[in-house]
Amino acid sequence: MTQVKIYFDGGYNNLGPYGSYHIVSEQINMRVSRKTFEPCSGISSCNTAEYLALLDPVQWLVEFPDPKEFQVQIFGDSQLVVNQVSGRWKVRKDHLKPLCNEIQKLLNRFGSWSISWHRRDNSVALFGH
Q1: Could you tell me where the beta strands, DSSP code E, fall in 14-124?
Q2: 71-117: per-residue pLDDT in tens?
Q3: What is the CATH number of the domain that holds 117?
Q4: How many domains does the chain divide into?
Q5: 10 is in which domain, residue-wise?
Q6: DSSP per position, 106-124
Q7: CA-to-CA distance for 82 and 87, rounded, in angstroms?
Q8: C-alpha–C-alpha distance, residues 22 and 74, integer Å
Q9: Contact residues for 54 (Cβ-Cβ < 8 A; gap 6+)
């Protein structure tokens, strides 16, 4: 099994929504990305940006030939996203439901996965925002 860690963070500032992620694995070339999402794409909250910052690396990883070989550990500072994706909290906002469902569907293509909250200062240290 291939161990993979994903760190993600999203936000919204005066320039609009953005998200970053970092993939760590000894078997996969490290990938770091920062994206600026188009404000006109319907992103109206930090929570949406957080979801999109997680969706992008998960989509990238499931494109590998055998995602069932991955044991994925995910870390983020959004308690909302962590608890909704894990199923501990209900998704109450209609605009977040499709994002959560898509991420869960993709995560289930891996051999195993977990998602955990980490403190905000971990995200700041890693991404600078």
Answers
A1: 16-24, 31-36, 70-76, 112-117
A2: 999 999 999 999 999 999 999 999 899 999 999 999 999 999 999 99
A3: 3.30.420.10
A4: 1
A5: 2-127
A6: HHTTSSEEEEEE--HHHHH
A7: 9
A8: 10
A9: 6, 8, 10, 21, 74, 76, 81, 85, 103
